[in-house]
Amino acid sequence: MYILYDVEDKIATITLNRPDAANAQNADLLDELDAAWRKAGDDPEVSVIVLRAEGKHFSAGHDMRGGGPVPDKITLEMIYSTESRRYLEYSMRWRNIPKPSIAAVQGRCIAGGLLLCWPCDLIVASEDASFSDPVVMMGIGGVEYHGHTWELGPRKAKEILFTGRPVTAEEAEKTGMVNKVVPRDRLDAEVRELAEQIAQMPPFGLRQAKRAVNQTLDVQGFYAAIQSVFDIHQTGHGNALSVGGWPVLMKLDEMKQNIK
Asked: Chain-centre distance of CA 166, in angstroms?
């Protein structure tokens, strides 16, 4: 079981529970995570959803090996089908669940890890947290849920994509990507306190407030941009396959999973 789920006092807590692999996302973890989000969204007793992670790091991103052998032949059609469902559709569904959500991020949040915290309405980060998307080294322009410009602004987004360097929690707070930065040993307590405060608000009012903000972003082009950039992302995979570059992807994945 890669996901833990608990409900107490109107707050559903969803926990990534693969700390030995820095919470890298294999297929089972993502499917379990989506099921937990759906469960929380459907439960009338849940007013707020908290996403957190066990261990030192929030998430090292996608585990491309998926916990099993890599197929002898990988096609762009296979990649597109998997990523459109588990990466793009899941993230968009979590974003649009009509209940406030809070991500608690510690340690490293790399590439695919952004697809887990960015769909949340609020992000609280520990002082040691960092956010990065180094996939340009693979010939890909960014992760599947391409929220970089919306989360960081265009120039900061280009900087972290062009260089692959991590954004510190302090930087992320300044751009508005993170709501609050707290000491590591206070992360869960601070998130819980915020969730409890929100849970006291009328559920319908919360739903309407979230819908208003999300629809404003969609009118500005968020939804269309995410969808169109996903197809651009797939051309990167096509290029990697055409030049035999899949081993580069696997090397990056191995590097991420060796994070201490």
From this structure: 15
**What is the residue extent of each domain of the chain?**
3-257
In the block, tokens 């952004």 appear at 114
Q: How many residues does this entry show for the chain?
A: 260
Cα 153 to Cα 33, 86, 91, 175, 181: the distances in Å are 28, 26, 20, 7, 19
3-state DSSP assignment of residue 15 = strand
Q: What is the pLDDT of residues 90-135, one digit of tens each?
A: 999 999 999 999 999 999 999 999 999 999 999 999 999 999 999 8
19: confidence class by pLDDT, cuts 50, 70, 90:
very high
For residue 65, the SS3 value is coil
**Cβ proximity of 230 and 88 under 8 Å:** yes
> Using CA atoms, how far apart are residues 87 and 81, in angstroms rounded to an integer?
10
Fold of the CATH domain 3-257:
2-enoyl-CoA Hydratase; Chain A, domain 1 (3.90.226)
DSSP 69: P
Nearest CA to 179 among 114, 256, 122?
A: 122
For the entire predicted model, the pTM comes to 0.91
